[in-house]
Design goal:
The structure is a single chain. 56% of the residues lie in helices and 0% in strands. It is mainly α. It folds into 2 domains: 54 residues; 103 residues, no CATH class.
């Protein structure tokens, strides 16, 4: 009989310990969920503040046309704007190579030797301000300025003209 009572008592202790462990686990899970929710709210609030204080951007580029879907990122934006600027798609390989060599299509690129800035390597960078106050950070603004620069240079006229001249110069520049 004593063994039966001991077994019952042991079972009650085990069940009580199990319930206590479950409560502790639930408390920890609730605390983790609350911390995660607070972190998500803080991130959301920061995003909203940034959106309110972000500088205005230049006119939107619009959707990437099907003919440009082989490109991604800033190169896709460049392809879209190239077509909007009235150039044929056949000019895109030249533009891609030209700016890949100049800046790697990085809107934050700065030439340490000359100080030329942005995707198209404007010198001084402030030349790009005619296409938007966000010229230091917006790839579309920089690409628009670069396409205009190429189009209005008599020795280039086209991205392929600029790329051909770039290749013929040493050190390379356009």
């Amino acid at each position: 009989m004593l063994d039966l009572q001991q077994a019952a008592e042991e079972r009650r202790r085990t069940e009580a310990a199990s319930r206590a462990a479950e409560r502790e686990a639930q408390t920890k899970a609730d605390a983790a969920a609350a911390a995660s929710a607070a972190q998500a709210k803080a991130a959301d609030d920061a995003t909203r503040r940034a959106a309110v204080t972000a500088p205005p951007t230049s006119a939107p580029v619009g959707p990437i046309p099907v003919s440009c879907t082989e490109y991604t990122g800033n190169v896709a934006i460049g392809c879209t704007l190239l077509l909007q600027w009235g150039y044929p798609l056949s000019e895109m390989p030249c533009l891609k190579e030209l700016w890949m060599h100049e800046s790697g299509w990085n809107e934050k690129a700065v030439n340490s030797s000359s100080g030329a800035t942005g995707i198209a390597q404007a010198l001084p960078a402030s030349k790009m301000a005619s296409y938007g106050a966000d010229y230091l950070t917006n790839p579309a603004t920089q690409i628009k300025w670069g396409l205009d620069y190429i189009k209005n240079r008599p020795e280039y006229k086209t991205p392929c003209g600029a790329w051909n001249l770039w290749q013929s110069r040493s050190p390379h520049w356009y």
